[in-house]
């Protein structure tokens, strides 16, 4: 591993952990009615690192960063390893891997249309709090995604990667948090309180809807600024997109 890779990994993890802790300290928003999973706009940090330095740097940096911030906020290592570390590693690894590939974007976009419709249905069916708002965010995010992909061909792979990576990461959180609750006491609880399947859908929708706007809107301009400031970091595959 190059010295640059080690430095990028350390910086990725440090920035992710620090901004995560500070943002939660200033604005401690969590999943309505369920708590625990935080409002997390700083997802853009490991996404940028994953695209510039590769999926392993982005994935491992995000995994370590979320673990550190989890220990500072709720202090449960088992929960962090089951839900936080796995979801962040998988999600940002996929973003970094897909972003620098030349892909056929039309088929994924059709698929995302169907997935967006499914997520809207889940939000309206299983969520009792702000369901219409979540459904609206999903719809608007898909429209923004279509516009960005259509108008900026060079960022198509990044946008597709962001959707896939965040969907997988959100699904892991929506699955593993309820699984954890079946066997362990949740943070801030005093007794075992197993969560139902609907809670998993709630975590999935909350994670996806509160993070996807930051990835698809902020990613391209931040990456463009990084490439202009440091041209040597620009992947060669970007030229052919």
Task: Summarize this entry quickly.
The protein has helices at 3-26, 44-53, 55-73, 77-99, 106-126, 131-151, 156-183, 197-229.
What is the number of strand segments? Answer: 0
Coarse morphology: globular
- Mean pLDDT score, rounded? 92
User: What's the alpha carbon Rg, rounded to whole Å?
Assistant: 18 Å
- Helix/sheet category: mainly alpha
Number of DSSP helices? 8
SSE string, helices as H and strands as E: HHHHHHHH
- Biggest β-sheet description: none
- The portion of residues assigned to helices is over 70%
Number of domains as seen in the coordinates:
1
Terminal-residue CA separation: 28 Å
Quaternary structure classification? single chain
Which blocks of ≥5 consecutive residues have pLDDT under 50?
A: none
Strand content: under 5%
Question: Describe it for me?
Answer:
By secondary structure, this protein is mostly helical. It has one domain. α1 packs parallel to α3, α2 runs antiparallel to α3 and α2 packs across α4.
State the main characteristics.
8 helices, 74% helix, mainly alpha, 241 residues, single chain
